[in-house]
User: Fold these one by one.
Assistant:
Number 1:
Amino acid sequence: MIQKPPASVGQRLDEVDTPALVLDLDAFERNLAALQRSAGGRVRVRAHAKTHKCPEIARRQIAFGAIGVCCQKVSEAEAMVEGGIQDVLVSNEIVGAQKIARLAALAERARIGVCVDNAENLKDLRDSKAKLDVYIELEVGMRRCGVPPGEAVVALAREVSGNLRFAGLQAYHGRAQHVRSLAERKAAIERAASAVRETKELLKRNAIDCPIVTGAGSGTYMFEVESGAWDEIQPGSYVFMDADYARNEWAAPLPRFEHALFVLSTVMSRPAAGVAIVDAGLKASSVDSGMPSVWQRPGLAYTRTSDEHGCIEGAPPPALGEKILLVPGHCDPTVNLYDWYVCVRNGKVEALWPITARGAVY
Amino acid sequence: MIQKPPASVGQRLDEVDTPALVLDLDAFERNLAALQRSAGGRVRVRAHAKTHKCPEIARRQIAFGAIGVCCQKVSEAEAMVEGGIQDVLVSNEIVGAQKIARLAALAERARIGVCVDNAENLKDLRDSKAKLDVYIELEVGMRRCGVPPGEAVVALAREVSGNLRFAGLQAYHGRAQHVRSLAERKAAIERAASAVRETKELLKRNAIDCPIVTGAGSGTYMFEVESGAWDEIQPGSYVFMDADYARNEWAAPLPRFEHALFVLSTVMSRPAAGVAIVDAGLKASSVDSGMPSVWQRPGLAYTRTSDEHGCIEGAPPPALGEKILLVPGHCDPTVNLYDWYVCVRNGKVEALWPITARGAVY
């Protein structure tokens, strides 16, 4: 069920079988550096591993200054700890006896944090005797999980006891990340910052220490940093960038990250003038946030998809058998389709990194 | 990189960890029987394995009368041959030296067919010395790969020589499958049938024998059967059905297939009245053809998704920790997210089938 790598070390990029998930190592490393240059020293960086699902990448994020990673699933956290990562926050609610038992087992092997938004769930975590850092998830505009600012946060924080440690607040405004206008993204984070400050003050009035406020994604994190309300940021997509993020307006204080992740495809049919069909469809590049874009071929556009095919239109049309790099519409679910990163530098395959948390859905 | 199964044999469904891909064996077997009852004896059934990616399922399709399977990728065909399937048509163009070499190796182990729509590609296949059944793909409304009806088909068929055998025509109208109105689906297949008949007559006038016309999907196959123009059908989704197919109008001559494939999810947050967040987002149920539907909870709807979360709204709201079955919007890319089918009968896990062609994208 593991697919063989579509490449071997030392091959030229044009020798790689397709579709393949290609990581441009130079661009990737520049992205790691750019993130740290912009935010490092001002807040802790806890990189989001849901994007890459790969301990090899997590280790490099830590080498560039991250204090650890976050994950969305217990199984992702298991893959990270298995891969040697010692500090993992599951930035999500973990509900159900089986999952809590797995989380407790993991907390024997590494420092593990988890989010809560419900007293019943918090009781189950407490009863598990697991040694966990607990973050209360604050609803700051995401409209998903989380407790709204107010007394409910205090009530929940008071219930964090036993082997559990109240580590602070999870405050992530995911909806703000893809708002195109920089000014609107900034305004959304300012509203979230007010909710965070109000909650911190409320906790303080109740003599509850709130060590860390964590949150923020690649599209806004400098606004969280500049607000002063967050202690830790959780960017994920910055390592790769994708076509959807590229549609955002980018300017200071956010650095301009580079596309480092690609799907290499092959033209498998030339059915008509100006039309080329490539072998990468929606099982090769997730289309939940739009079609992939065509890399460095300005006259061409990827116009429609089906399960195993993509349609590229424009001029000059690529030849049958030609290999085309695509920038995925959305990096996270695209990575989740592959077993291997084909890591390329100067047009040559330098390494193959296994995506060990691929499919780590539970 | 293979995830552990989320269940063990003998467990009750409500003990299965989530998200899990659940196959209702009774419904699945009734779907196998319904397909064969409607079409069997009138045409050959070559079930499409791109839907399920699982030799266990392919073997059952063959036990119910299918002559073999089709696949879209060489790597899928490899997984099927590895799983003991001896007759595989790659219903797609295979371009590039590496892929053709793998196809040739596979043809040493099983009966392998492949589609062509291009003379240059056909030459590469011929030069490989592989013993392959070659089908010319006819464009019948799919607007993807394929040769339009006419002299180009004859010219291509004349080039099928050496170890290659001209096996006939691939004529699949994928766009017709999801047209909601039964009458419009029928009309689309009648137009495709005209293109097939015209091409068969042209081949006959040129003294070229056309042994098999193959094609058709779950949404239309009885129209292909009744037209008399096809010898073989390629339905895939009928084994599972999905929420998108369920939106089609279903009536005779097509049987009403049952939902047999589900994503089991858990309510992980109850952030507001009438809102429940489940742990199955777009990495657990592909949303390219719409949101999943909620199974047998008529007051509830899955209204929005993010990578790892789904929002369920309505009444009566499910409780925290409650398990909810979802019907995937699109079965094929959803299956491609999982390593295991959790096969359930009478509420108990009967088997765990590995999805060996999961991620078989190249």
Number 2:
Amino acid sequence: MADVRTERIRSWWGWGWQDAAVGEAERAGLVARLPPHWVADPLPIPDIDDLELRAPRVRPPGSLARLCTVHPHVRAAHTYGKAYRDVIRALRGELDAAPDLVAFPESEEQIVDLLDWAGEENVAVIPYGGGSSVVGGVEYRGDGHDAVLCLDLTRMDRVLEVDRTSRAALIQAGALGPVLESQLAPHGLTLRHFPQSFEFSTLGGWLATRAGGHFAMRHTHIDDFVESLRVLSPSGTTESRRLPASGAGPSPDRLFLGSEGTLGVITQAWLRLQDRPVHKASRGVSFGDFGSGLEAVRAIAQSGLDPSNCRLLDEAEAAINTGRADGRAVLVLGFESAVHPVDTALVRAVEIAEAHGGTAESRSTQDSVGGWRSAFLRMPYVRDALARSGAIVETFETACTWRTAAQLCATVRSGVLAATEEVCGEPGVVTARVTHVYPDGVAPYFTVIARSRRGAEVQMWDQIKAAASDILDRLGASITHHHAVGRDHLRWYEAQRPHEFHKVLRAAKNSLDPRGILNPGVLFD
Amino acid sequence: MADVRTERIRSWWGWGWQDAAVGEAERAGLVARLPPHWVADPLPIPDIDDLELRAPRVRPPGSLARLCTVHPHVRAAHTYGKAYRDVIRALRGELDAAPDLVAFPESEEQIVDLLDWAGEENVAVIPYGGGSSVVGGVEYRGDGHDAVLCLDLTRMDRVLEVDRTSRAALIQAGALGPVLESQLAPHGLTLRHFPQSFEFSTLGGWLATRAGGHFAMRHTHIDDFVESLRVLSPSGTTESRRLPASGAGPSPDRLFLGSEGTLGVITQAWLRLQDRPVHKASRGVSFGDFGSGLEAVRAIAQSGLDPSNCRLLDEAEAAINTGRADGRAVLVLGFESAVHPVDTALVRAVEIAEAHGGTAESRSTQDSVGGWRSAFLRMPYVRDALARSGAIVETFETACTWRTAAQLCATVRSGVLAATEEVCGEPGVVTARVTHVYPDGVAPYFTVIARSRRGAEVQMWDQIKAAASDILDRLGASITHHHAVGRDHLRWYEAQRPHEFHKVLRAAKNSLDPRGILNPGVLFD
């Protein structure tokens, strides 16, 4: 799939750019860090032309047909998200779920026409942004529809209007991260929403999934930047009034934030922007153990300082990602401002960390922060390479109150470790970091690396993931802080979601999507 | 109505405590500031016992009857909120809308039983906290029910649990501001939600109406403090999981925040708390005109400094409330922290204000801030006295983006002034202040003082208010930033609310309150 702006080609089976995939030399270096008996010959990458996708079951009328493609490469690339289980299945050539058609609408009118046609023909419609879902959010798994249409929004990617005075912009939902930032830059403005998927996810995807972004505190979710949304549902159009805040009834936007394409297609939104920061300061603080680091993070989160970065890495993550070998956990603190120096705030935060047993690093950690950022963006490519080579590599995340945090992190680490041993025959590795923090709680993020058995990778991961999700549910944590529900989290989401609220959501679904064509299987059983 | 904790008696017709009402000497001083030809003999306060309320049309079964009262004083006091039009009607003895019964449940089981009974008997139920609505939120105006039950929650007013680690508490919805703060104080914690109605409004009322509170920025609405809600609807109970944040589907809490008693009765909530601030700093900055002040407020709002107080008073408000006679607008800036000194932040904010043409006051404004606060809390009592004496005195508020702010303030002031002239035969006074600010916009708050004609007060105010609301709607502002919709704003709320979202809300209403007994006439026609 060629990107018109870059001419680089996206991987159809794995993460990111095809030309950025881990090569043989790099792969050899990566697998050298795995136990030797885990390592298998890499799963080959199949040729799509050999895979014989099912023939498309529908054909839209001429005016819509020109918006759609049935090209096997495009259909294959739009079959799954980018979770470990997606990559494995793609590499195995399991593409039964491939959409019959992929549409690339360029206007709201075209989307309306496509929805009308799909409703009449009982065609499931899967709204699709960058396709970076790791929760089965863009994969059709049902059997109640006559065909599946993937609705790729990426040709609707313009910044339509900038309001410099209010520091906000009207942006089309199909804009990928770099595409929207490049249009904001000439105005000296930025959304500063930088999920790991930044290059390969869209504004609409962020909004629909309540994505987590750059800021460790305060503006943690994209939700916090929304002034208004415009949403096309099969029943009609919803456009909220553009306001900095309102007390007029329940928020319309909050119904669609997190609706994951089940209630309508978000086509554009007014977003609050930031001035580009010119003052930055950051510092690393190390701790004897993750638990002490958590206490320091809690104190900082309750101090009102609001660091833009407050990333705590446990001992293993610190070793893997920053190369340190002293067995200490590391907290990276960062502040930024477009208006005034932030050194004082950093000093205060470091003082608080030291008061909780931390040791401030003697030099600025700007280098290691930069290094960590590169490693962070490289991780999904590394995941793909390790996945091909015999390792289960996957992440999951949650949010909980501070009262539960330490116990939750410990229970998840021990419980998931036990699950890897049970499922894989030997224990794997479970690491933890903290990505977003709140005065009243925290969002821990876990990585699992374990030994896979060829042919059983997906089932093995699903068992480990179920064990992890059961622990989160038992301890009252959220099944997701920012990865969304999709299809993979549905069972635990149903346990978490209040029953009466489910009835309301179901009523909303029936009202907005009466034929049930929008992203079936997501949020609703 | 006696308050069990204070033994002070609430006014049945007007604001607050009966013994705090403006006395004759104070009233004489106040009316001396009105044009003499406006001043009329004060409307007498009727004796409830002379008013002959309609006999209650229903009688609940014995177990529920003991929770209810039909005492005329209690029914009269629960008939209206506390808007100008409410006070006038109460003084006129117009109590046709009085509820047949007022219930004081002490447990959720009792609420469930009352809702069940009301549903079977077609009795409208009006959830009632402190009764401080200024938008007709607690007044029955329909005719489709066989009787009206006012559900007074104030006996459910306990802080049930404090989580010091996460800095949060589980609080029953019927707790009035001082009642909940007095229970938090021993823990060194505070909600710091201080609406003008603080003494006479409840947590549940704040949540149901998305009340605005103490903080000028960031935590402006009570919404921002909610971890979870528990809501009893006729269809069943909704309890959200207690979390610092979540990305799992649309937020359940956001459906009930702003639902104004139409979807369920909020019975308790986990709220984020604050440590008591020990560092405070504030300063006044004056401006040649309100527009310059607005520009300074915008720059401060976009600076990331987040003052806790950023209150801009126009020339008239500054004269009335702080006694200054130099015709300048005044910005009161305040910062607070429980952890670190805030002087630097104040200095930076004052610098920004000065760069926008402000003149920093030479001494701390703590005294005038304190004076303003006393005046602020006294205002509703003063309003009642002036209303009795021949003046229309009322407020309204909104929110808009910065792009619209200056034009909106000017248009509202001139348009509402013209409306007073048309309605009252001579122009009144329209003043403006800014109570809450955002990086992308602002919440202006207007006060209208005009000459009333005895017997026509309510119709006159309604005409002025309609003119004001039409301007807000035409300029794309919100019909309310924090006063809620109630019944008085319904027409403009319907213009503001997206049509498809209304269908969803209606579906939610049908699901949660299938017999339509909850606060009929609010949010829904």
